[in-house]
From TrEMBL:
Protein name from the UniProt record: Heavy-metal-associated domain-containing protein
Domain HMA: 1-67
Stored Pfam families: HMA (PF00403)
InterPro entries: HMA_dom, HMA_dom_sf
Length: 67
């Protein structure tokens, strides 16, 4: 499954690294791509292992706001 998440406060490479680490810590993630310019994250994951809400929660726990 592929999902696109809009994240309000991605501003620099440090944000990208923090978010990428949080996303990939979830079992079932296949790939993710983060765009600072578009302020969005594309996530490809195995939906039988992982729910997108768990991914959102791991990002929000870092203090980022998903739109």
């Amino acid at each position: 499954m592929k999902s696109v998440l809009k994240v309000f406060n991605i501003n620099n490479q440090r944000d990208v690294s923090n978010i990428q680490r949080a996303i990939t810590s979830n079992e079932g993630i296949i790939a993710c791509e983060i765009s600072i310019e578009k302020k969005e994250i594309q996530v490809i994951y195995n939906e039988s292992w992982l729910d997108i809400d768990k991914v959102k929660e791991s990002i929000e726990n870092l203090g980022y706001m998903i739109l």
